[in-house]
UniProtKB/TrEMBL annotation:
The gene is rsmG. This is Ribosomal RNA small subunit methyltransferase G. Specifically methylates the N7 position of guanine in position 527 of 16S rRNA. It is found in: Cytoplasm. One of its GO terms (cellular component) is cytosol.
Length: 213
C-alpha cells in the first residue's frame, strides 16, 4: 500500500535532490507506484515490492538523473527497454515539456505502460511502442536515448544508433561505474561519466554519456 509514509520519503528525497515538484507531480509519482504494485501481482514488472524500496529504487533512482539530463535541454527522449517504466515515466511526470517514447519488446510490460500512461494522464506526452529496438523506424529521431537495464554500452549504442538525431546523446543509467564496458566502446564514440547520489539507495549510481565522434 502506497501511503503517507511513502509520500514523506519521496518529498524528503526530492528535497535532497534539489528537485522541487508540484503537489500534483508528487501525487502522480505515488499513483504510478500504486499501479506498479497492482499490476505486478499478475505481470511480474519488478522484483522490488516493498513500498519504501520502490520509492528509492524506482522513483528517486530515476529522478536523480533528471537534472543532468535536463542540462542538455532535450525535447524528444527514448527510453529503451523501459520495462515497468523507469526512468521514462518518472521523468515525464517531472518534466511535462519532454516528449518521451517508452520502448519494450515485452507485450505484458507494454500493456502495463499503456494503461499507466492513460491513468496518469500522460497520453499527450508519452508514447508506448512494443517492438524490438532494431525494428523501430520513427518519423523523427531522438535527441536523447536513455536506458536503465537494456544492454551493455556497446550494444546499447550499436542497436540504437539509427534512432539518434544529429547532435544527440545517449544517457545510460548504470550502477558501479562500468569501466570494462567503456573500454569496449568503439573509437568513434566518446564517453563521460556523471556520478549520481540517490537518496536512500545506499549504492553507487552513475550516468554514462555517449556521443558519436
Amino acid at each position: 500500500m502506497i501511503g503517507h509514509r511513502q509520500e514523506q520519503q519521496l518529498r524528503e528525497g526530492l528535497a535532497e535532490l534539489g528537485l522541487p515538484l508540484a503537489d500534483t507531480a508528487v501525487e502522480r509519482l505515488l499513483a504510478y507506484l500504486g499501479l506498479l504494485l497492482k499490476w505486478n501481482k499478475t505481470y511480474s514488472l519488478t522484483a522490488i515490492t516493498e513500498p519504501e524500496r520502490m520509492v528509492s529504487h524506482h522513483l528517486l533512482d530515476s529522478l536523480a538523473a533528471y537534472a543532468p539530463i535536463a542540462a542538455h535541454a532535450p525535447t524528444r527522449l527514448l527510453d529503451v527497454g523501459s520495462g515497468g517504466g523507469q526512468p521514462g515515466i518518472p521523468l515525464a511526470i517531472a518534466q511535462p515539456d519532454w516528449h518521451i517514447t517508452l520502448l519494450d519488446s515485452n507485450h505484458k510490460k507494454t500493456a502495463f505502460l499503456r494503461q499507466a500512461v492513460i491513468e496518469l494522464g500522460l497520453n499527450k506526452q508519452v508514447e508506448v511502442v512494443c517492438d524490438r529496438v532494431e525494428n523501430v523506424q520513427p518519423a523523427q529521431a531522438f535527441d536523447l536515448i536513455t536506458s536503465r537495464a537494456f544492454a551493455d554500452l556497446a550494444d546499447f549504442s550499436r542497436l540504437t544508433r539509427h534512432l539518434l538525431a544529429d547532435g544527440g546523446r545517449w544517457a545510460a543509467l548504470k550502477g558501479v561505474q562500468p569501466f570494462e564496458e567503456i573500454s569496449a566502446l568503439p573509437e568513434n564514440i566518446h564517453s563521460e561519466i556523471t556520478p549520481l547520489a540517490v537518496p536512500g539507495l545506499g549504492a553507487e549510481r552513475c550516468i554514462v554519456w555517449m556521443t558519436p565522434r
